[in-house]
């Protein structure tokens, strides 16, 4: 009796699976066919934070807009891009290790992938959280090793990998080896 019920359940599930595969959902088609340039964002407001910046803005009432894109170049010369959904009116850009001014271009992107005219803003991030932690690091002797203590006033996610320098047998080359093969997270204090 159990085998007949099991067989019936298998047959019903195969028929349901086969019938659900016949409908074409159209996922391979472009998201939009309208090739017109979307309207640009308005009223950008920059809030500078530790190592990052938040930019809020007003999104135009254009149903073709899919997302907002921020493009900027970091201090190491690498160009970065951050996207924000149409339903959010803010984008957060980060990865800054210094406090220089950076130019950020904001684009509204349509469903067809067409960029609006750029809206250019300038951000000047505050001191990066890693430098705040670096200034407060204290190493104390502990039983069988050491204790690493630091303050994290911005409560950012920071991890430190501890390394030590060793020299080779001939004393000419210096290599870096992992002293402790674990990350030591710094918790907010």
Task: Give structural notes.
With 189 residues, the protein is mainly β. The protein folds into two domains: 82 residues, Immunoglobulin-like (Sandwich); 57 residues, no CATH class. It is built from two helices and eleven strands. Strands 4-3-6-7 form a four-stranded antiparallel β-sheet, with no helix packed on it. The N and C termini lie far apart (65 Å).
Largest sheet: 4 strands, antiparallel
User: Roughly how many Å apart are the termini?
Assistant: 65 Å
pLDDT below 50 for ≥5 consecutive residues: which ranges?
171-184
Gross geometry:
flat
Q: Give me the strand/helix succession.
A: HEEEEEEEHEEEE
Q: Which structural category do the helix and sheet elements fall into?
A: mainly beta
Q: For this structure, what is the CATH homologous superfamily of the largest domain?
A: Immunoglobulins
Radius of gyration: 27 Å
Query: Briefly, what CATH class of the largest domain?
Result: Mainly Beta
Order of strands, main sheet, comes to 4-3-6-7
Q: What's the CATH topology label of the largest domain?
A: Immunoglobulin-like
β-strand amount: 35-45%
- How many β-strands, per DSSP? 11
Q: How many domain units?
A: 2
Helical amount among residues, as a percent range?
Answer: 10-25%
The average pLDDT score comes to 78
């Amino acid at each position: 009796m159990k085998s007949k019920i099991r067989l019936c359940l298998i047959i019903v599930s195969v028929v349901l699976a086969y019938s659900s595969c016949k409908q074409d959902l159209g996922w391979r088609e472009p998201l939009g066919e309208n090739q017109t340039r979307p309207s640009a964002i308005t009223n950008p407001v920059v809030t500078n934070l530790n190592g990052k910046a938040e930019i809020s803005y007003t999104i135009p009432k254009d149903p073709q807009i899919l997302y907002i894109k921020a493009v900027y170049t970091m201090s190491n010369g690498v160009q970065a891009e951050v996207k924000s959904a149409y339903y959010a009116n803010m984008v957060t850009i980060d990865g800054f290790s210094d406090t220089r001014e950076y130019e950020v271009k904001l684009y509204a992107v349509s469903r067809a992938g067409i960029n609006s005219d750029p809206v250019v803003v300038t951000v000047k991030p505050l001191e990066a959280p890693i430098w705040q932690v670096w200034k407060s690091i204290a190493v104390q002797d502990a039983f069988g090793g050491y204790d690493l203590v630091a303050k994290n006033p911005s409560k950012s996610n920071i991890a430190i990998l501890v390394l030590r320098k060793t020299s080779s047998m001939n004393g000419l080359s210096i290599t870096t080896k992992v002293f402790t093969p674990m990350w030591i997270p710094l918790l907010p204090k």
